[in-house]
Design the sequence.
């Protein structure tokens, strides 16, 4: 019985690690605790035809908590001009630690202007 419980716990843990944590706008200003090796995907609506794009910032600078960082724009599945798509930002946790991911929805050339939207996530990674 003890061995069965151990196997079941291991299966549940590995399943939890293999399923990505998906974050969106409604998760703004929330904290998430995840194990090392967890994939995290942030999806936010984006409409680059307006000039506004999501820009992501990870702090502290030079952190080693996450790796394999990818940004991807997923085009809308419609033929309508000016339709909004999805910006996807994904990474994998590599080391124990705490970091903050901030996203600013802005026009890159308007550096002195306030962002239209700001999103912040705190990620706590345990070993």
Sequence:
């Amino acid at each position: 019985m003890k061995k069965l419980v151990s196997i079941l716990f291991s299966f549940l843990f590995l399943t939890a690690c293999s399923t990505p944590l998906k974050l969106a706008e409604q998760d703004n200003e929330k904290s998430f605790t995840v194990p090392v090796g967890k994939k995290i995907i942030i999806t936010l609506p984006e409409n680059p035809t307006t000039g506004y794009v999501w820009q992501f910032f990870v702090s502290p600078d030079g952190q080693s908590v996450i790796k394999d960082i990818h940004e991807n724009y997923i085009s809308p599945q419609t033929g309508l001009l000016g339709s909004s798509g999805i910006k996807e930002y994904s990474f994998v946790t590599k080391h124990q630690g705490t970091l903050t991911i901030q996203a600013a929805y802005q026009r890159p050339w308007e550096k002195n202007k306030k962002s239209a939207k700001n999103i912040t996530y705190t990620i706590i990674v345990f070993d």
